[in-house]
Amino acid sequence: KGHNTIIYGLWPDGDAAARIRDIGLKYLGDLAESSYNLHLTLEYIGDLSDNVDNLDSLLTSQLSLALGWVTKYGCVPITGVVNGTGKFSPDASGKVPIYLTVDSKGLSYLKYTICSILDGVAGIESDTEHGFIPHITLGYIDSMSGMMDIEFDPFPISFDSITLAIGDSHI
């Protein structure tokens, strides 16, 4: 808890979430994300404090409309396989995100669809600075040299709905 961002994301099914959490605890201990926080970000909209004026009922309605449209027209459920690991460069606080990769044919299309709808319906432009690496963050470590070999057998994952997360609230 305690997130200060606005995202569209996918939260994994219960079995996959439990396996991801177990892997996180095994390798990261107390640094592992809680089960509640395990998700795959489709679109980062922004920091909550930077978007306070945009969070009026109209914008929330538009975002909910976009979410409903994607769900209605069959972009979910999404299935795939958790099958790899990685790390990103340190975030603004100096912490290094450690993640598991998700391989699924449907994720790139779903991300593209969400971004197109957000731009067309709500006027929110996508971040074009980075590519899309489908992943679920296990946790954050203190240094780039702290990466360990994380070993696990690939396992299935599914996502049955798209969630708009505003801070710790999920819509």
Topology overview:
Elements: E1 5-10, H1 14-28, E2 40-47, H2 57-72, E3 78-87, E4 96-103, H3 105-122, E5 135-141, E6 155-159, E7 162-166, E8 169-170
Antiparallel strand pairs: 1-2, 1-7, 3-4, 3-6, 4-5, 7-8
Helix pairs in contact: 2-3
Summary tags:
8 strands; 171 residues; alpha+beta
Short account of what is shown:
By secondary structure, this protein is an alpha+beta fold.
In words, what does this structure look like?
With 171 residues, this protein is of the alpha+beta class. The chain has three helices and eight strands. It has a four-stranded antiparallel β-sheet, with helices on one face. Strands 5-4-3-6 form a four-stranded antiparallel β-sheet. The longest helix is centred in the middle third of the chain and has 18 residues, at 105-122.
